[in-house]
């Protein structure tokens, strides 16, 4: 009985382990406790266990009820290795460190998709003027989230009618073919393919992708490439203080708009398109420029249809935690309570 | 009460109106009556009404219970204009001609997706050896159907657990960006874009696409192009009796495999990929060649994942009718019966 009283419930852990940073927080009764939200640079830790231990110590929490960890890689089984870092995220280790009786691992875009119906308005900004056609024609519950960070991916949320569980469709969209349309883009594709064997979407649409795009443009223009991070290139481009960073970011945004448009045709997300990811956020001012929507809607006979999608940018870096909180495993006490009744 | 007795139920109509042909049949108690299945070339009729009238007369049917018509275009509202033909498919006209009290219009790929769990084994042939990994790892209910006919499209079926309705996701995949990867393909893209403004997937992956691909290859090779239909090009290529039709079909299959692979990454259809469409079927022998799977699985770090998808070819042209029968509107008598009980 006491499990229904939030005051008596213990904390649970939600975390979003990206390729570069980890966001982590405590929840009580599935609600994120805002004062407990912390960000960590993964580089400062040898392992996720070390990071988790450090966090729990700083929060003065000894033992937790359950944990849901979102990870920027395909999740299959009870332990997962990060794609871009030699970290093993393991259910048993997490249980041991945190005392959590139940631990769940999910994909980071699954967590983002799970959050789409509950994102606070303050964490969203619209890239387009919502047109009348959109609000009158579509009362769809089909939404997608997509974006560029350490990698690129997308996920789809189809909300069920009341009492029916929502459906999440995970994807590996970062590995789709990079959609090129002219000779300049073919040269970029060949440059990327010579280094990576092929050119997938995320060879451009990611932090490393933006850096390589910049380096390629410098070599094309026979200019020395500065040693800039993706964040620095985005910042410079948005400030318009260097024509090459600017052109790199413009080309990045063109690919981003084209891929977003292609995915809109594949999923028909009449309920809205949500853009996420650190690199996406870094380029937000440029995504608001007319060139973005021009490329997004440039789908020939379907350009009218393309104008009916609402596109919103997720401005917070913590949104996946909302999805993790929604996906937290039910506490054992609640299950025990149920079965004792039956 | 008598509405539950199939013997006393009246016929309903199911039809699949493609860009080139129409498949049509009568159902009783939602079961297709095989002896009533007929195919018509659309060119021989001025309107769908004329075709329907002619069919019902040949079947000696005066009045029907309901009708479900699948159409190769986006369906929105109570009447739909075909994309490639000046036909208006209108619910009221269909009701008037057939006597059907309830008429439903659905997209043709929606009908195909609705049929995926019920296709008879005799109408399927596997393109790959189902690997152990596939059967052991995935018990997914997520399937996609895709294919080339008059146009190109795909749709997704997510089967719900028992008593929960299946979810169909429609798409407009034919309008996605044609994924090119080298200079030859860029030249083809530019040739198509010079005629159509841009080059979408279905500018290659369709009957007209195969013809234009052949014409382009002839002009590239400075050879005279024969006046061949898509079916003739496919037949010649499969018989290997002309190097240019052969090369055209091989390039078509390479694009088909690449697009199918990209869509597999977007939908992760662990329950299976089903290939449909007249042009697809015409090229079946070439889809079985090693080059198809080589291109399908060529997704870099995800090539292992790509080998876990089962790919089957739908060999029948009537499959969408199964989905139409499943989507038939409930007869008014059944609804009346229910409400009289309550």
Layout of strands and helices, then pairs:
The structure is a homodimer of 342-residue chains.
Chain A: E1 12-17, E2 21-28, E3 31-32, E4 38-41, H1 48-58, E5 66-71, E6 79-81, E7 88-90, H2 91-98, E8 102-107, H3 108-115, E9 124-126, H4 132-137, E10 142-148, E11 152-158, E12 167-170, H5 183-196, H6 207-220, H7 230-239, H8 243-267, E13 272-276, H9 278-282, H10 284-287, H11 290-296, H12 303-306, E14 311-314, H13 319-327, H14 332-341
Parallel strand pairs in A: 1-5, 5-8, 10-13, 13-14
Antiparallel strand pairs in A: 1-2, 2-3, 2-4, 6-7, 9-14, 10-11, 11-12
Helix pairs in contact in A: 1-2, 3-13, 6-7, 6-8, 7-8, 8-11
Explained architecture:
The structure is a homodimer of 342-residue chains. The first copy, chain A, is an alpha/beta fold and 342 residues long. Chain A has 2 domains: 2-114 and 319-341, Nucleotidyltransferase, domain 5; 120-315, 3-Layer(aba) Sandwich (Hexokinase, domain 1), CATH 3.40.367. The first copy, chain A, contains 14 helices and 14 strands. The first copy, chain A, has helices at 48-58, 91-98, 108-115, 132-137, 183-196, 207-220, 230-239, 243-267, 278-282, 284-287, 290-296, 303-306, 319-327, 332-341, and strands at 12-17, 21-28, 31-32, 38-41, 66-71, 79-81, 88-90, 102-107, 124-126, 142-148, 152-158, 167-170, 272-276, 311-314. In chain A, strands 1, 2, 3, 4, 5 and 8 form a 6-stranded mixed sheet that branches. In chain A, strands 9-14-13-10-11-12 form a 6-stranded mixed sheet, with helices on both faces. A two-stranded antiparallel sheet of chain A has the order 6-7. In chain A, a hairpin with a 3-residue loop joins β1 and β2. In chain A, α1 packs parallel to α2 and α8 packs parallel to α11 (290-296). The longest helix of chain A has 25 residues, at 243-267. Chain A is globular and about 60 Å long. Chain A binds chain B through residues 74, 142, 154, 156, 158, 164, 167, 169-173, 175-183, 186, 189, 193, 196-200, 258, 261-263, 265-268, 298-302, 305, and chain B through 74, 142, 154, 156, 158, 164, 167, 169-173, 175-183, 186, 189, 193, 196-200, 258, 261-263, 265-268, 298-302, 305.
